[in-house]
Design a protein that fits this description.
The protein is α/β, with parallel strands linked by helices. It has helices spanning about 15-30, 55, 65-75, 120-125, 150-160, 175-190, 240-250, 250-255, 260, and strands at about 1-5, 35-40, 60, 80, 85-90, 90-100, 105-110, 135, 140-145, 165-170, 195-200, 205, 205-210, 215, 220-225, 230-235. The protein has a single domain (about 1-250), classed as Nitrilase/N-carbamoyl-D-aminoacid amidohydrolase (4-Layer Sandwich). The chain is built from nine helices and 16 strands. The longest helix is centred in the N-terminal third of the chain and has 18 residues, at about 15-30. Bound molecules: 2-oxoglutaric acid.
Length: about 270
Amino acid sequence: MNFSIYQMDVIVANPDQNRHKIANWVKKQINHKQVDTIVLPEMWNTGYALDQLEELADDEGRQTIPFLSELAEKYNVNIIGGSVANRKKDGIFNSSFVFNRCGELIYQYDKIHLVPMLDEPKYLQGGNVKAEIFQLDGIKIGLIICYDLRFPEITRSLALQGAEVICVLAQWPASRKEHWIYLQHARAIENQCFIISANSSGTCNGTAFAGESMVIDPSGKLVTKGPAEQETTINTMINLNKVAETRQAIPIFSSRVPHLYGGGNSDA
Ligand SMILES: O=C(O)CCC(=O)C(=O)O
C-alpha cells in the first residue's frame, strides 16, 4: 500500500483555508504519484485555537465529512482524515473520520486522552468509545490521536484486535520531540506493527510543532521521516509481509501471560 502523509502547516483558526489547502494538496499528490491512502494530521480545521473552538468547530462533521468523502471518491483514494474540532451534543470533541475509495465513512474516533498541559479538558470532551481497527483495501489499521501515544494500553488493544498498521495523527510540540520519536519506536517494537504518523509543522500561538512525521517498520526501524518544523509530504510504500515476519521471528503475542498483568485476548 502506498501512503501519502501530509505534514501540514495548519493555518490557525481558518477552517475554510485549511480545507482549500488540503483539496489542492490531495489533487497534487494524485496527479503525480500512485497513492492508495492519504494521512492527515490532528485538528487541521482550526489548529490549536482552543479558545475559539466554540465559534470555529465543525458541527457533527457537517463540513468535514462531505469534504473528505468527495475527495476520496473523486480521486479513488482512501483517506485517514486526521482530526477536526467537532461539536456534538455533549460538547466539542477531537474527531477523526476515515473514508474508503468509494467515499464511504467507514470509521470514526474521538481522541480519548486530553492533554492537561494544553488545558484541553477546559475546551474539549474526551472520547468515550473504544478505539477499534478498520480495514482499507484489506489491511487492518488502527489510529490514535497525539497524546494517546503516551498510553501503551490503547495501541496494545489495537494490536490485539489485529492492527498491522497504527496511524498517529498529531500536532506534537517541538519542545517534547524526543518523546515523539522514542514513543513511536516503542509502540512499533512492542506491537510489531507499522507506525505511520502525520504531525503538523509550523507554529500556533508561540508553540512550534515537531514535524518529523514518520514511518517505522514492525521491527522498530525508521523507514522514512519528514524534516523538523517544515511543511512537507512523505510518500512511502509499506510491505505488509514484514508484520508476519516480525511476529514469527519474535512471537511476543503467543508469549503473553495476560492473566498475570491484565490485557485482552489476541487476534494478532
Ligand atoms: O503528549 C505530549 O507531549 C503532546 C500531546 C499533544 O500535543 C496533543 O495531544 O495534542
